[in-house]
Write a structure and sequence with these properties.
Elements (H helix, E strand, L loop, with lengths): L1 E10 L3 E12 L3 E3 L10 E15 L2 E14 L8 E3 L4 E3 L11 E3 L7 E15 L4 E15 L4 H10 L11
Parallel strand pairs: 3-8
Antiparallel strand pairs: 1-2, 2-4, 4-5, 5-9, 6-7, 9-10
């Protein structure tokens, strides 16, 4: 992981920038039984922030900010109870796991996800003597993508819902 910050006084007392960045990688805990691959649910988060302060006069200031964060999961961290007949021990929601044991999933395909967040803000402040006039405006954009596997649900429904043959309308 990393964290960093940089303050830049561009014009002393008038204009300054602050840049902040961070990143983190979290190791997964789930083993995919079908492939034997461990730690399939790794997570990576990166982000940053930029602030710009502009004070051209004693009674007026602008503060602008941008915030960015992206999170990515290689696979779902959902797991199911699984028993290992070789050691006669069960794992799962109620199971006890040591540091060397992993949670397990039997899902047939990886379920990756991403989450991207961007936020923008501009605040203007004007001191009018008896008080301050403040205007702030913000905008955010967030996009998230998740993968779901519903094959077990689809197969379950197929056994109770009859499949009707397609018959085009022939008037």
């Amino acid at each position: 992981s990393f964290d960093g910050m940089l303050n830049i006084p561009v014009v002393e007392g008038v204009f300054a920038l602050r840049l902040v960045g961070s990143g983190e990688r979290l190791s997964g805990t789930v083993t995919r039984l079908r492939t034997g691959r461990q730690d399939v649910d790794n997570q990576v988060t990166t982000g940053g922030r930029m602030l710009a302060a502009f004070t051209p006069t004693d009674n007026f200031s602008l503060l602008a900010s941008i915030y960015y964060q992206k999170r990515r999961w290689d696979d779902s961290n959902a797991y199911v109870s699984a028993c290992d007949p070789a050691i006669n021990q069960c794992f799962g929601l109620a199971g006890r796991l040591s540091d060397s044991e992993h949670l397990r999933t039997n899902l047939p395909v990886p379920l990756p996800s991403t989450d991207l967040l961007r936020m923008y803000n501009l605040t203007a402040t004007l001191d009018v003597g008896v008080g301050s006039l403040v205007s702030t405006t913000s905008y955010f954009d967030r996009s998230a993508q998740e993968t779901f596997d519903i094959s077990d649900v689809t197969l379950s429904l197929a056994s109770i819902v009859p499949v009707l043959p397609y018959a085009p309308n022939t008037l």
